[in-house]
User: Fold this.
Amino acid sequence: MAEISQGTIEQAIQTTAETVLRNELYFCDLDGLAGDGDFGNSLATGFRAIKNEWDGIDKSNIGAMLLKISMIVSKNVGGSSGPIWGTGFMKAAMLTRGKRAVTLPELTDMVGAAIEGIQARGGAQRGDKTLLDALLPIHETLQKHCEAGDTDLGAALKDCAEAADKAVDETRNLVAHRGRASQVGERSANTPDPGIVAIATILQDWCKHHGVERTPTAPEVAKATA
Assistant:
């Protein structure tokens, strides 16, 4: 069965940091449509700290690395994003203690654990117009690949990126029920959720990094990855 090495996961974290930092202002602009406009700054602060501390992060195994990243994110990312993203990394870390590689089913379990942790921490559910509306279809996509016995990691990545991309448009007209955007009520409708856009953008950049060809459909993702 195809495995995802720790080196690949390290590259994914580094690519994610580049994505977040490149789109710091753009993610703020998206957040400003219905929120307080600081999402991009908050997330960038955390990933900038990860980059600055990268050489000193314990990389003896995947779990140790993700746990340290969870701590850095929780400490440096402001607002609700810090606890949410930090919890996601922490839950994934708990399933990878001592591991130097993971299989696709193990990665699927990591995403599932992250989702459960995020839901428990923030109380959001599907349809509340949060990053969970991207993470849940990603998890379902991974489950389908596992059930089919697929070993093509590139195909799984492409399908996950498409699921997240699709979530941007599917949630655009929803009214937010969590986060700062929920405070503006109906005004949050007809705006993209910046967390969902961020997840879709990160996955699209992972596709680029690994030579997986796909074209974003949501205009925000196309702009963020241009």
Observations:
- The beta strands are 3-5, 101-103.
